[in-house]
Amino acid sequence: MKSFFDGIASLFVDFLFVPMDMLAKLELTNWWAANILNWIFIIICGAAMVYWIKQLNIFKANNEDEQDTTAHSFLK
């Protein structure tokens, strides 16, 4: 049974975490390159938020949005 868990540990440490180890080493030399994936996600989330707010404004301008402040019928 011990060899089974040692195999799982070897899988993660020797194979699956290799990209994380490379990023950790890269961060010591170039912080921007190591965090490029984070910057890409931030840009995508920012663009999605801008799109969402524009769509909300379109529905608000057409008076198509229902702003019911009660979440449940028992709050009325």
Instruction: Determine the structural class based on helices, strands and strand pairing.
Output: mainly alpha
How helical, in percent, are the residues? over 70%
How many distinct folded domains? 1
Low-confidence stretches: none
Element order, helices and strands?
HHHH
Distance between the termini: 60 Å
DSSP strand tally = 0
Beta-strand content: under 5%
On the 0 to 100 scale, the average pLDDT is 89
Determine Rg (CA atoms, Å).
24 Å
Tally of separate helices: 4
Choose one word for the global shape: elongated
Major sheet characteristics? none
Task: Provide a descriptive summary of the structure in words.
Helices cover 75% and strands 0% of the residues. The chain has 76 residues and is mainly α. The protein has one domain (2-63). It is elongated, with a radius of gyration of 24 Å. The termini are far apart.
What tags apply to this protein structure?
mainly alpha
Can you give me a brief rundown of this structure?
The chain is mostly helical.
